[in-house]
UniProtKB/TrEMBL annotation:
NCBIfam families: thi_PPkinase. One of its GO terms (molecular function) is thiamine diphosphokinase activity. The keyword Nucleotidyltransferase does not apply. This is Thiamine diphosphokinase. Keywords: ATP-binding, Kinase, Nucleotide-binding, Transferase. Its EC number is 2.7.6.2. InterPro entries: Thi_PPkinase, Thiamin_PyroPKinase_B1-bd, TPK, TPK_B1-bd_sf, TPK_catalytic, TPK_catalytic_sf. Residues 123-205 form the Thiamin pyrophosphokinase thiamin-binding domain.
Length: 211
């Protein structure tokens, strides 16, 4: 089971949310993510943040439903998203899904994506999902189901990764060392029912994306 954290970034289409068939047990709204929860017809377990970007009428609606609220000052050392992740971990969740984590603010988007790496080192698996992308980490190996019109990219987050094998991909690789900053593994495609990425060393972010 997973915790779902809804941030104040881009909206997620309800159809995509349903199709992903996410196994959600606990829902956290990080500030303005509360309005996205309303659009997805989700009732959060808790609202967390400094409340600087939340619609006050929507907030009142959920507070009237006795939804728990943890309010932080606007001047703080962590983003609302990271505070929400910390809360999910305190609740015992090791699988966390972020939506509303990407958007027009590139600084927030990159910071949220990099949380995947930070928390993986603490034993927490995080996925970032929006209308065009699913981002997660790969260490050792990962199997990906083929989705029509989607591309798969691997971006090294260690000094290098050793791609032992890409199985089921249009552009296969075997025993290739890919350095951090390389674009060699960007925009590949799965041509079988599924694709398998096998790494001998290092870690990378896997982007499953469509235009």
């Amino acid at each position: 089971m997973s915790a779902l954290i809804i941030g104040s970034g881009s909206n997620l289409d309800k159809d995509i949310f349903v199709l992903e068939n996410l196994n959600i047990e606990y829902v956290i709204c990080a500030d303005g993510g509360l309005e996205k929860a309303e659009k997805l017809e989700l009732i959060p377990n808790i609202i967390i943040g400094d409340l600087d970007s939340v619609n006050k009428l929507v907030l009142k609606k959920y507070l009237d439903m006795n939804i728990e609220l943890i309010k932080y000052p606007s001047e703080k050392n962590y983003t609302d998203m990271e505070l929400a992740i910390e809360h999910a971990i305190e609740k015992g969740f090791k699988n966390i899904i972020l939506i509303g984590a990407t958007g027009s603010r590139l600084d927030h988007t990159i910071a949220n994506v990099m949380l995947i790496e930070k928390y993986y080192k603490k034993g927490i698996h995080i996925q970032v999902i929006d209308n065009n992308n699913l981002v997660q980490i790969v260490v050792n190996s990962i199997e990906i189901i083929n989705k029509k019109d989607y591309f798969v990219s691997i971006v090294p987050i260690t000094d290098s990764i050793e791609v032992v094998s890409l199985i089921g991909f249009k552009y296969p690789l075997n025993k290739v060392n890919v350095k951090r900053g390389s674009t060699l593994c960007v925009s590949n495609q799965i041509i079988n029912e599924k694709g398998t990425i096998i790494l001998g060393k290092g870690a990378g972010l896997v982007f499953i994306s469509k235009d």
